Amino acid sequence: MSITVYAKPHCPQCNATKRQLDKMGADYSVVDLTQSPDDLAHFVSEGFQQAPIVVAGEDTWSGYRPDLLSKVSQLINA
């Protein structure tokens, strides 16, 4: 499963999301939204208003979502 975390520097929710993914042993990439204005504009146009924005397979969400991270963990470890 491909996982990308679109994050901002000094973002507590972004850091919590990355820590949780690290604990799960997930392989993921990070995109800095402050360095990627096209990605930021795309997500804003889709209605996302907070960081991080996580794209995990077919699922996309914003904010620190332990419930959805748990779902990803189950899929990774299946």
From TrEMBL:
<dbReference type="Pfam" id="PF00462">
    <property type="entry name" value="Glutaredoxin"/>
</dbReference>
<dbReference type="InterPro" id="IPR002109">
    <property type="entry name" value="Glutaredoxin"/>
</dbReference>
<protein>
    <submittedName>
        <fullName>NrdH-redoxin</fullName>
    </submittedName>
</protein>
<dbReference type="InterPro" id="IPR036249">
    <property type="entry name" value="Thioredoxin-like_sf"/>
</dbReference>
<feature type="domain" description="Glutaredoxin">
    <location>
        <begin position="3"/>
        <end position="58"/>
    </location>
</feature>
